[in-house]
Design brief:
Helix content: under 10%
Radius of gyration: 65 Å
Mean pLDDT: 89
Largest sheet: 10 strands, antiparallel
Shape: elongated
Number of helices: 6
Distance between the termini: 179 Å
Number of domains: 9
Low-confidence stretches: 1-15
Number of strands: 72
Structural class: mainly beta
């Protein structure tokens, strides 16, 4: 069986058909696999109307007819309320009390007044507020309400005749009707009457006229209503007796009164389209629920202002169970609407399981589609809604159950709902249930029966139980699928077509259930040991932080079909961590793969066992395989430190696979922990998780968590406009946890798969299942990066081949100092880097993508940048041939051309000194050619091949001092015209020839140097001169003593007896000539001085006696001679002494 629930929606007044919100699967928490409830079970819908016709008929329309609240709860504080009773199917002997509620969703829809926003106020007549009133004066004009009363003033013209017209003032609506007239009588012009009785005249009237306005004062006419009095004491009006109608009803016509007393006014009560109150069968008070703006739509001045709200109330219905539910205070108004009419309704859809019920795939969809016939012209308008995600049974007849909710389908206007026969056939089957026809499907009816114990459909009770629910449709019924003509075996999708030729309505909900088939694989999951101690018989085990728990999962096949591709998944509870696992398989062969812990499977990871093939067994009690796994209780300070929460470990899992015979895939069949015993539900499998409390948490926190941050933060980046999906954080909390914007779930906004956390983040509250006091407070911090970094101009990202490129992080800059720029080589995916230096080795276009943000995991949109590497203007240099005395060379022709390039010519490699005339280079050397193509340049050297003619210089004369050695240096210096130094010399006498070779291109060059010798100064040669003592030494004696042929122009100088003859040098001679004469002075002979010698006679005269008698110092080598007694001492002379 397939159950489909559809909710209608409304479009703008000028639209024909608008699919405003796409229909999507609506699931509970936790959601079933693929959003499909694959269960032995069913769904039920209950609901009712909270607005009805003031003058109720079974065929009356809410369009342009007065509507009033339905309010049956007896509670003054509520404005509207109605009731409906939740009952479950007793099909196949199922006991409703043994059914397990899986999901419950509350929908409500209505229309108040065009232009009403989310909230508006209405008066509650059941709650009055007393207010003292003292002498409050009011001057009222036509149509104005009288303060502190229910009266309204109407001013109109009375026409007695065309020349006798005057104003009438009528106070009505607050009790008795009072009429005042300001007549044209001669006296007592003011009169009044009560409830159409006799006219009376107030006393003490005064009258005056000014500017066409007449004014009358008089003794007060007192109107008494309850404890209030209203004293009328003045009228003003048009003084003309023949004015037009409006001149007697405009603001020139008024009534003055004074109010006194105590006024009991209805309390103004604020209604919110997003809020609703519900009271379950076991509740004493209402619980108020709020929907977010996204659940579902609350239009203003469009889509005929039909709004639809939604709230997941699974836990509430679980707690309240079966019985009568009352829903109150929808945001509705009483009164009349001339467009589509006023209406208001609520409905609850409940998905439940019971082992006695058939397997079904149940899918819930909601959205918002609006349809209207433009200008009510009778043209048919239609739309199509696709439904996907269910899977019908592979064989046999398929029963299909459909549920819908729609708004504003009138009983008087035709419309239709059709379902496609097959898939994409465009063949449509018109639908109807027992309270409708195919030509008027939406007719303001409620049809939600269930099967009783006799398999007979029985309406569930509701109050009021109206035939005409004025603009609302709630229905569930089995459609005729005879021969599987509409939904076939294994079918997974269908389409609905809806339309009208006059009506206005909105569809917003479908429930769809089809018969399914699931092989009967059972996983019995039970606790074995805690901290090594057997607790298998303990009905209430506990665990302490850090202790290990071991579970055993027994796999049985209780059906008649084997399974292939079997998979066992045990999601890791957020309060535990994986330790180990092992398996035991009791059949062969097997293709089972050892279980692993997959940290990416689910929010907190899962134990995944690809068990593969699971055979059948003759005995359904046979244990075919066993998974034993151990987990460790959390030591997480955040979890354990929540004072309001009792930490626990909740373990469950599921079996998936495919039937071997049926080829029927099944997913997420949950484990059981055993069977109920000892009551009417004995034998019912218990599919609830195994929950084991964690004790000693406070002690653990005190001992281990002093420095820990026990406040949970979730960080997100660049969240979509739709918000942060709840499944992004769900794994950090117990399975089934609900999330709110305040700690009171009854008044808070809930966040779920259809209502994500707001994009702005904030502080939120997580409440685990089965706990009203446990609240986890956590933060969601959101960084939104929408900006791009500053991208440089194109020319700043253009480089030349081979150039050095700067790191692009110096060119691409963040717009926020807190941001970093990240580079990518692809538009999506890839690895971010904060540095990028593109290679310029090869010319071409390089594409990169850049983004900015506080981290690589939180960046704004990527934007592409293009780095251009331009090719260089490559050219070839042609060096010129060397020539002798070439003159000039044109270097502008010494290179190949490059298309598009320009050339310039320079004398230096840095291209700072440009050649003035590169076509006439007159000197050999290295010059530089610069090619420019765009922004790219190449500089290459060119050698200009000038070979100068050899230069031996110009003939010269060399005058040197006689005796000097002629050297090549002297000769080279004698040449003129800067001869080259590489030549060679040859000699011919005093003529020397210098030759410089010319090489291959030039002849040799010669020059001659004639050497002239200048005599050197000649001082002769050294000599000696011996003279007798006393001889005068003259130049002549000295010159004569010189050897050689000394020049005669010398000069003498002496030091002692050494005389130097110096002849000065004459250029080019530079050194003077000298010679020396050593003079020897020969002493003359010395015979002493004459003397006398007296001797005794006889004495022998000896030479000695004689010598001693000499005076002076005579030489001793003399000889003596005597003549007589005169002795002469003679010393001979030695040359040159004579």
């Amino acid at each position: 069986m397939v159950v489909f629930v559809f909710v209608g929606f409304v479009s703008p007044s000028n639209a024909q058909n608008a699919n405003v919100k796409t229909f999507n699967k609506r699931v509970g928490t936790p959601q079933p696999p693929e959003g499909v409830f694959n269960v032995r079970g069913d769904f039920a819908i209950i609901g009712n109307t909270n607005l009805t016709l003031q003058n109720y008929t079974t065929t009356g329309s809410n369009t342009n007819n007065p509507m009033i609240y339905v309010d049956l709860d007896g509670v003054d504080e509520t404005l509207n309320s109605s009731k409906s009773t939740l009952v479950f199917s007793q099909e196949n002997g199922a006991d409703p009390n043994c059914s397990n509620i899986l999901y419950a969703g509350l929908y409500w829809s209505g229309k108040s007044r065009i232009g009403d926003s989310y909230t508006f106020s209405v008066e509650n007549p059941d709650i009055l507020e007393s207010q003292p009133v003292s002498d409050v004066s009011q001057t009222a004009t036509n149509g104005q309400a009288i303060n502190y009363s229910n009266y309204t003033l109407e001013v109109e013209r009375v026409e007695v005749s065309s020349s006798n017209r005057y104003p009438r003032y009528t106070l009505s609506g607050g009790g008795s009707t009072y009429e005042f007239e300001y007549t044209n009588a001669a006296s007592n012009r003011v009169r009044y009457r009560i409830n159409g009785g006799s006219w009376q005249t107030p006393a003490n009237q005064t009258h005056n006229v000014s500017g066409g306005i007449k004014t009358a004062t008089f003794d007060p006419v007192v109107i008494t209503v309850g404890s209030m009095t209203y004293s009328v004491n003045r009228l003003r009006g048009n003084s003309s007796t023949n004015g037009n109608s409006s001149s007697y009803s405009n603001t020139n016509n008024d009534l003055r009164l004074t109010a006194n007393g105590t006024f009991d006014s209805p309390v103004s009560q604020l209604l919110d389209k997003r809020k609703i109150k519900i009271k379950g069968p076991n509740a004493l008070e209402y619980t108020e629920y709020s929907a977010t703006d996204a659940n579902i739509l609350y239009p203003t001045s469009q889509y005929d202002d039909i709004y639809v709200g939604y709230r997941d109330i699974t836990q509430y219905v679980k707690d309240q169970g079966l019985g009568e539910y009352t829903v109150a205070d929808l945001a509705l108004r009483e009164g009349t609407d001339a467009t589509s009419g006023l209406f208001g309704q609520w409905a609850i859809v409940v998905v439940y399981e019971n082992s006695k019920l058939p397997w079904r795939d149940i899918t819930i969809f909601d959205g918002y589609s609006h349809i209207r016939t433009p200008d009510n012209n009778g043209d048919e308008q239609s739309g199509i809604i696709p439904i996907t995600g269910f899977q019908a049974a592979p064989t046999g007849a398929i029963n299909v159950k459909l549920g819908i909710m729609a708004a504003e389908g009138d009983i008087a206007y035709d419309d239709f709902l059709q379902i496609e026969q097959g898939v994409n056939t465009d063949t449509w089957q018109s639908l109807a249930h027992p309270l409708t026809t195919t030509g008027n499907f939406l007719n303001s009816s409620i049809y939600t029966p269930v099967l009783d114990a006799s398999n007979v459909l029985v309406d569930n009770p509701r109050t009021p139980n109206l035939v005409n629910n004025t603009g609302i449709d709630i229905a569930m019924w089995n459609i005729d699928n005879n021969g599987n003509s509409i939904i076939g075996n294994n079918q997974t999708s269908t389409r609905f077509k809806y339309g009208t030729n006059l009506d206005i309505y909105a569809l917003y909900f479908f429930a769809f259930a089809v018969d399914a088939y699931v092989p009967d694989i059972e996983g019995l999951n039970q606790i074995q040991t805690i901290n090594g101690i057997d607790v298998s018989g303990n009905p209430s085990p506990t665990v302490e932080p850090g202790q290990e728990l071991t579970y055993k999962l027994d796999i049985r096949n209780r059906g008649t079909e084997a399974v292939t591709n079997g998979e066992i998944v045990v999601p890791m509870p957020y309060t535990a961590s994986f330790v180990s696992s092992s398996v035991e398989i009791n059949y062969s062969p097997t293709n089972s793969v050892a279980p692993v812990f997959d940290p990416t499977r689910g929010s907190t990871g899962s134990i995944v066992w690809n068990i593969g093939d699971i055979p059948t067994s003759d005995d359904p009690e046979d244990i075919l395989a066993t998974l034993t796994y151990t987990i460790k209780a959390t030591e997480d300070c955040f979890v354990l430190a929540q004072a309001s929460c009792d930490a626990f470990i909740s373990v469950n899992g599921s079996v998936s696979g495919s039937g071997v015979t049926s080829n029927r895939d099944f997913q997420g069949v949950s484990f059981i922990q055993g069977y109920l015993e000892g009551d009417v539900c004995q034998g019912e499998p218990v599919r609830d998780p195994l929950v084991i409390p964690i004790t000693g948490a406070a002690e653990w926190v005190a001992a281990n968590c002093e420095s820990e941050d026990i406040f949970l933060n979730f960080e997100f980046c660049n969240v979509a406009e739709s918000g942060i999906p709840v499944n992004q954080i769900r794994g950090s909390f117990p399975v089934g946890t609900l999330f709110y914007n305040s700690s009171n779930p009854q008044t808070a906004v809930e966040y779920n798969d259809n209502n994500p956390f707001p994009r702005s983040g904030g502080t939120f509250y997580a409440i685990p299942p089965n706990s009203s006091s446990c609240t986890f407070t956590f933060n969601i911090e959101v960084s939104i990066v929408t900006t791009n970094p500053v991208i440089p101009a194109e020319e700043n990202l253009t480089f030349c081949q081979g150039a050095t490129v700067p790191n692009l992080n110096t060119l691409v800059l963040p717009t926020d100092e807190e941001y970093t720029v990240y580079f990518y080589t692809q538009a999506t995916g890839g690895t971010a880097t904060t540095t990028l230096v593109p290679s310029t080795a090869v010319a071409g276009i390089k594409e990169y993508w850049v983004a900015q943000g506080p981290s690589a995991q939180c960046i704004g949109p990527r934007v592409k940048i293009t780095v251009t590497i331009n090719a260089l203007p490559d050219f070839t240099v042609i060096n010129s041939e060397a020539e002798c005395d070439a003159g000039t060379v044109d270097i502008t022709v010494l290179h190949t051309d490059v298309e598009g390039a320009s050339f310039t010519y320079w004398s230096d490699q840095g291209a700072t000194q440009q050649l003035e005339n590169p076509s006439a280079i007159g000197a050999s050397g290295v010059y530089y050619i610069k090619a420019t193509l765009g922004e790219c340049t190449v500089i290459k050297p060119v050698t200009v091949g000038f070979v100068d003619a050899p230069n031996a210089g110009i003939d010269g004369q060399l005058t040197i001092c006689e005796g000097s050695v002629v050297t090549e240096a002297m000769l080279f210096a004698a040449l003129d015209n800067d001869p080259e130094p590489s030549g060679t010399w040859t000699q011919n006498g005093n003529v020397y020839t210098y030759t410089v070779e010319g090489g291959d291109s030039c002849p040799d060059d010669t020059a001659v140097v004639t050497v002239n010798f200048v005599p050197a100064p000649d001082a002769g040669t050294d000599g000696t001169l011996t003279v007798c003592e006393g001889t005068e030494i003259t130049n002549e004696l000295l010159f004569a003593a010189l050897g050689g042929t000394p020049d005669t122009n010398g000069t003498w100088s002496n030091v002692g007896n050494v005389y130097t003859y110096t002849v000065a040098a004459t250029a080019p001679c530079t050194e003077e000539a000298t010679s020396t004469i050593t003079v020897t002075i020969q002493e003359g002979p010395e015979a002493g001085t004459d003397g006398t010698l007296t001797v005794c006679e006889g004495t022998e005269i000896t030479n000695e006696l004689l010598f001693a008698a000499l005076g002076g110092t005579p030489d001793t080598n003399g000889t003596w001679s005597n003549v007589g007694n005169v002795y002469t001492y003679t010393v001979a002379a030695t040359a040159p002494c004579t």
